[in-house]
Specification:
Helices cover about 30% and strands about 25% of the residues. It is globular. Among the domains are: about 190 residues, Rossmann fold; about 110 residues, GMP Synthetase, Chain A, domain 3 (2-Layer Sandwich), CATH 3.30.300. The chain is α/β, with parallel strands linked by helices. It starts with 20 loop residues before the first helix and ends in a 13-residue tail after the last helix. α12 links the parallel β13 and β14. Strands 2-1-11-10-12-13-14-15-16 form a 9-stranded mixed sheet, with helices on both faces. Strands 7-6-5-3-4-8-9 form a 7-stranded mixed sheet, sandwiched between helices. α1 runs parallel beside α9, α2 crosses α3 and α10 packs across α11. The protein binds adenosine-5'-diphosphate. The site of adenosine-5'-diphosphate has 23 residues, from β14, β19 and β20.
């Protein structure tokens, strides 16, 4: 499979493929007593160990074989973060089939499209997704059986054809199963992008890419996961494999806490406290809920010390609350489905420790430096590489063994410029290699031939104490091509005028960056992975006329 030439003298080391099954085998052997605690959709907490997980994954591998699932075939999951989902991660990939994690928050049509495109043979689902599964079943001819992730007593009374019970399938099998050895470049799992523009596209990870990503992301300067940690991946296991934590946590022997579907602030806080969570990962909208709950009730964390925040920019105000008020180290991570997903992680280097607080916060606000294994560069629209000066902004390109080369089912390469993947993000990189995202290229506002980054405008708005959430979009303007419109959700019970909001920008940015208008709204549209749907907002405000007017209250 390698496209590189061989040396006349090759190394003489063992030819051991990097396989996902080796992670759970290792965790069983060396951290067999480390716990996995799951909040189930049934509402209760389930508790067992890596050793138990490995045993049941082997039973599931036998069950899949009995169902006739073959190497390379796709098996879908529609499930929250939980132990049965984790068993599926290891059993499906470990036996050579392809784990296809599906985002249940997508529209039913998109889910049906994805299942059909992937040609899933079986689909495992949490009971909460029975209505979704029932709605799409007739449009998914490839699916031979729908496996409900529950025991026989909880099997739903449903007309769904070929409905199977997960626990019954497992009970029919022994745990006598040896993980097969095969080429490490074999497909292991499949994850579709959220398809904010056009159809979702599949990123097909290999065993090798998954293992390398697990090693790379667990490193101290990256996620820094160890056996001393209790890790709670709040980011769903259907959102780019929960950023690799279902692999890196067992690899490091960390205790895992899987929160199921209860992602509201109160439920997360109770779980974190009860299970002694030390480290977590999630998108900013999830932290918003948790922080609000903690602050409103005057609570504090007793063990939670570190979190990574990614998927969207973490507003400085949120980072300040986490660090200063709650003593939780907040670390930016940046990546994408096409990158398994981790590309960069934030945090301070030793030399930053001598700097003053505002300078340190400016560093933390950046999306960070590349994880070993990922290479970055920024280019202008003509493809010319731009300097790493922290000022020049350009299209961000990446390279690395856990970055896709093409989309699943596509003949064409997804790469440009001699093997780089275009991320669709606009960024600067400073002399230390710290990358900062200014915007997604489709969101950046082009005003009078210059670019305005919407992330900074949103971050400033959200630093105002009256503002809960903010989104900035570019709308057509007769003179400047595009101008920024700011949409603001206020905190409950507070008032703010248009003038006060705009005054808040004074001295913080170039004057011409200031939004032309502000609209106060009750909520903002969020997509399947908790991100702002700016294309929806642009559509909604398509006929908005700036004309100096606003709809302020
Ligand atoms: P999708 O593209 O399906 O929404 P991804 O989760 O793959 O899902 O999204 C990747 C994109 O999310 C990146 O290209 C970037 O625009 C954005 N993103 C991810 N992490 C960050 C971050 N820390 N700061 C700013 N943007 C981020």
């Amino acid at each position: 499979m390698s496209t590189y030439r061989a040396s006349p003298l090759m190394g003489q080391m063992m030819d051991q493929p990097l396989l996902i099954s080796s992670i759970i085998e290792f965790a069983d052997r060396h951290y067999g007593h480390s716990e996995i605690v799951s909040r189930r959709v049934e509402g209760d907490l389930h508790r067992y160990t890596y050793r138990d997980c490995h045993r049941r994954a082997r039973q599931l591998a036998n069950a899949l074989a009995a169902l006739g699932v073959e190497m390379g075939q796709r098996v879908g999951t529609l499930a929250w973060n939980g132990y049965r989902h984790l068993e599926a991660y290891y059993a499906i990939s470990g036996s050579g089939a392809v784990l296809h994690t599906i985002n249940p928050r997508l529209f039913a049509d998109q889910v049906a499209y994805i299942v059909d495109h992937a040609q899933d043979q079986y689909l495992l689902f949490d009971l909460s997704f029975l209505p979704l599964v029932t709605a799409i079943a007739s449009r998914c001819p490839s699916v031979k059986g729908w496996i409900a992730l529950c025991d026989a007593e909880r099997m739903p009374d449903s007309a769904l054809p070929n409905l199977l019970c997960y626990e019954t399938l497992l009970a029919q099998q022994t745990d006598d199963f040896s993980w097969p050895r095969f080429d490490e470049n074999s497909a292991a799992s499949l994850c579709y992008t959220s398809g904010t523009t056009g159809h979702p596209k599949g990123a097909l990870y290999s065993h090798r890419s998954t293992l390398l990503h697990a090693y790379g992301s667990a490193m101290p300067n990256a996620l820094n996961v160890s056996s001393h940690d209790t890790v709670a991946p709040v980011v769903p296991m259907f959102h780019v494999n929960a950023w690799g934590l279902p692999y890196s946590a067992p690899l490091a022997g960390a205790k895992l806490v899987l929160p199921g579907s209860a992602l509201d602030g109160a439920s997360l806080y109770d779980l974190f406290e009860a299970e002694g969570v030390t480290f977590s990962a999630g998108v900013p909208t999830v932290w918003l809920g948790l922080i609000n709950h903690v602050m409103q009730h005057g609570l504090r964390f007793s063990t939670f010390r570190r979190t990574v925040i990614g998927g969207a920019a973490c507003p400085p105000a949120m980072m300040a609350t986490l660090i200063d008020e709650l003593q939780v180290e907040a670390i930016h991570v940046w990546g994408m489905t096409e990158m398994s997903p981790i590309g960069t992680t934030g945090g301070l280097q030793v030399r930053h420790l001598a700097q003053d607080l505002p300078a340190q916060r400016a560093v933390l606000q950046k999306q960070g430096h590349a994880v070993f294994g990922v290479d970055l560069k920024i280019v202008d629209d003509a493809g010319v590489e731009l300097p790493w000066d922290g000022v020049s902004c350009g299209n961000l390109l990446v390279k690395g063994p856990w970055v896709i080369s093409r989309y699943f089912g596509d003949e064409d390469s997804a790469l440009v410029d001699g093997g780089w993947f275009p991320t669709g993000d606009v960024a600067s990189i400073d002399a230390d290699g710290y990358m900062q995202i200014t915007d997604r290229s489709k969101d950046v506002i082009k005003s009078g031939g210059e670019w305005i980054g919407t992330i900074e405008l949103e971050n400033i708005a959200m630093a105002h104490p009256a503002v809960l959430q903010a989104a900035c979009i570019g709308l057509p303007h007769p003179k400047w091509d595009e101008r920024p419109l700011l949409l603001v959700v206020l905190r409950q019970g507070v008032d703010l005028t248009l003038e006060q909001m705009l005054q808040f920008y004074e001295g913080k940015i170039a004057k011409w960056w200031t939004p032309d208008a502000v609209v106060f709204v009750d909520s903002l549209p969020l997509g399947g992975t908790g991100k702002l749907l700016k294309n929806k907002l642009r559509e909604q405000y398509r006929d908005y006329h700036f004309a100096g007017a606003s709809q302020g209250r």
